[in-house]
TrEMBL record:
Keyword Oxidoreductase: yes
Entry protein name: Nucleotide sugar dehydrogenase
This protein's record includes keyword tRNA processing: no
Keywords: NAD, Oxidoreductase
MF terms (GO), sorted A to Z: NAD binding; oxidoreductase activity, acting on the CH-CH group of donors, NAD or NADP as acceptor; oxidoreductase activity, acting on the CH-OH group of donors, NAD or NADP as acceptor
Family stated for the protein in its record: Belongs to the UDP-glucose/GDP-mannose dehydrogenase family.
SMART domains: UDPG_MGDP_dh_C
Any GO BP annotation: polysaccharide biosynthetic process
Annotated coiled-coil segments of the chain: none
Signal peptide: none
Stretches assigned to the UDP-glucose/GDP-mannose dehydrogenase C-terminal domain: 311-410
Pfam families in the record: UDPG_MGDP_dh (PF00984), UDPG_MGDP_dh_C (PF03720), UDPG_MGDP_dh_N (PF03721)
Length: 410
């Protein structure tokens, strides 16, 4: 019962940890020597609630270890990045590299699961790479030389990964029924949610569909926010009122959509079928245009003042996290420092200790404490709905120009 998990990032490491906790012997594989060393020392290379304890415990019990080479195992779980290449096409080269590492270790009977979010056909692609290198093995089930390929996309929410990994329902799509069943039996060892079997292409598309659904719905709210602004209407009141209708449930507008999933995955659908994916592509466009609209509004207000001080509240991609990657709020704050003719930007981000490197070399920006920044500011720009901003004393905002992109202070 040995499982190899290839790629020990935000999904791979938690997956390896819960499998080890469930009693499997788990070997994690990563190209980063520092990650491997951290795990073998029983520590974690990034922060995720509850992960450190499970990693420390399973490493101490000898159930979890890490290495840079792909080992022999009964099951393989591939959890590597799928970045963009070209015009938002999926770059499958990390999946290909993982498959090439796995291929020489196989002898027949193994399960190979793709966990990475990927476009329709990616599991087939992974299988073709492996079978291309090992033509004596087959996808045909129930033979001594059979291999079993499956896709099990994760849907955990960062910050709640260790809970959702155990409790969420999982979609499991096999290249054969037997492969899906083997994958189900493995995941049943740690997952108490429902395990829903289908084929690999449907599973791939299901994951992309969930995030595209959310993106399209956020785009609807963001488009409304632009229309409402021109009409002199408060968009949050508008949405609240419309949502009283029993069949209307509009999401919340904001400065844009960030993170590594919702702003990325819909493109994989677009790239698979540009002709038909019109609404999904348009939604991406609306959400990606929102930071520029916020910026234009702030700059317009700033131009009316001499040496304006602007407090930019929040850099993270959503509330109460320290994750600044793919964050529209950070992009807005950085662009502000570039495009402001004169004046100062006071960045407030309670979840970090130093400004990220994108601000390097800028003389007109400093990281400030909330109360200090608001007191000094002419313009207060709210970009993230972090709790400390929610509870800010509103009295301190009087006399200020307030641009509230999250509707937090209505
Ligand atoms: N946002 C809005 N308005 C809203 C809701 C969200 O502007 O009404 C923005 C957020 O501020 C943020 C972005 O959208 O910038 C995404 O945040 P999120 O909390 O909606 O989602 P993520 O990216 O943290 O995680 C999503 C989840 N997918 C869905 O809810 C369908 C999660 O379950 C997935 O596992 C994850 O993507 C993933 O890994 O794919």
């Amino acid at each position: 019962d040995t499982v190899a998990v290839i790629g020990l990032g935000y999904i791979g490491l938690p997956t390896a940890a819960v499998l080890a906790q469930a009693g499997k012997t788990v070997i994690g594989v990563d190209v980063a020597q520092a990650t491997v060393e951290a795990i073998n020392a029983g520590t974690v290379p990034f922060v995720e609630e509850g992960l450190a304890t499970v990693v420390a415990g399973t490493v101490a019990q000898g159930k979890l270890s890490a290495q840079t080479e792909t080992p022999q195992a009964d099951a393989y779980i591939v959890s590597v990045p799928t970045p963009f290449k070209g015009d938002h096409d999926a770059d499958l080269s990390y999946i290909e590299a993982a498959a090439k590492g796995i291929a020489p270790q196989l002898s027949g009977g193994e399960l190979v699961v793709l966990e990475s979010t990927a476009p329709p056909g990616a599991t087939e692609f992974m299988a073709e790479v492996i079978l291309g290198l090992r033509p004596e093995l087959t996808m045909e089930p129930n033979l001594p030389n059979s291999l079993y390929f499956s896709h099990a996309p994760e849907r955990v929410l960062p910050g709640r990964i260790m809970v959702e990994m155990l409790e969420n329902d999982r979609i499991i799509g096999g290249l054969s029924t037997e492969a899906a069943e083997l994958n189900r039996d493995l995941y049943a060892s740690f997952c108490t949610g429902e395990l829903l079997l289908t084929d690999a292409r449907t599973a791939e598309m299901a994951k992309l569909t969930e995030n595209a659904f959310r993106d399209v719905n956020i785009a609807f709210a963001n488009e409304l926010s632009l229309i409402a602004e021109r009409q002199g209407i408060d968009v949050w009141e508008l949405i609240e009122l419309a949502n009283h209708h029993p069949r209307v449930n509009i999401l919340q507008p904001g400065p844009g959509v960030g993170g590594h999933c919702i702003a990325v995955d819909p493109w994989f659908i677009v790239s698979a079928d540009r002709e038909n994916a019109k609404l999904i592509a348009a939604a991406r466009g609306v959400n990606d245009s929102k930071p520029e609209a916020v910026l234009a509004k702030v700059l317009e207000r700033a131009e009316r003042l001499k040496h304006p001080t602007i407090a930019a509240l929040g850099l993270a991609f959503k509330a109460n996290i320290d994750d600044l990657r793919e964050s529209p709020s950070k992009d807005i704050a950085v662009a502000l420092t570039e495009r402001l003719d004169e004046g100062t930007v006071l960045v407030v981000e309670p979840n970090i200790d130093a400004l990220p490197r994108e601000f390097d070399g800028r003389g007109n920006v400093e990281l400030a404490a909330l109360e200090d920044a608001v007191e000094r500011a002419d313009i207060v720009l709210l970009l993230v709905d972090h709790d400390p901003f929610r509870t800010l004393d509103r009295e301190t905002l009087q006399e200020k120009v307030v641009i509230d992109t999250k509707g937090l202070w209505r």
